[in-house]
Specification:
about 140 residues, Nonspecific Lipid-transfer Protein, Chain A, five-stranded mixed sheet, globular
């Protein structure tokens, strides 16, 4: 009985962890989207830029997408079928570790086998640049 309860507890914890990570990822993307409208000069980052990003986990419990086109950003709360780059994290924990790491080095995550990137890696570097630019503008770094 105890084993059954512990297994159910572990499954619930995993599910809640995925839901929380999914919502946090969406919150970050919506925050970036808002910053393009609120912070003077930040929108220059997406002038003449088009790109479709998908962020997900292997089990698809966490999924969100961002589309940049015509100087605008649109967030989708699911994985899009068409993308320029798709970043698949091993699990929700690997995604959280990446998001909260100080350096957010995608290459390091690739080497640790915590993430898989399909598509053009330059899009990831562009996204990372925009994220760091936002951190500097907000005085987080």
């Amino acid at each position: 009985m105890l084993r059954k309860w512990l297994n159910a507890n572990s499954m619930l914890r995993t599910e809640l962890s995925g839901v929380a990570t999914d919502k946090f990822l969406e919150f970050l993307l919506y925050g970036m989207d808002s910053a393009f409208w609120l912070l003077k000069g930040y929108k220059q980052n997406i002038k003449n830029f088009s790109g479709r990003y998908v962020f997900t986990t292997q089990n698809n419990r966490v999924a969100a997408s961002a589309v940049f086109k015509d100087g605008d950003m649109v967030v989708h709360e699911k994985a899009l079928n068409q993308w320029d780059v798709k970043v698949t994290f091993k699990n929700a924990q690997a995604l959280r570790d990446f998001l909260f790491s100080g350096d957010q080095d995608i290459v390091d995550s690739l080497l640790k086998n915590e993430v898989e990137v399909d598509g053009n890696l330059n899009y990831i570097y562009k996204f990372g640049f925009m994220a760091r630019d936002l951190e500097h503008r907000l005085g987080i770094v």
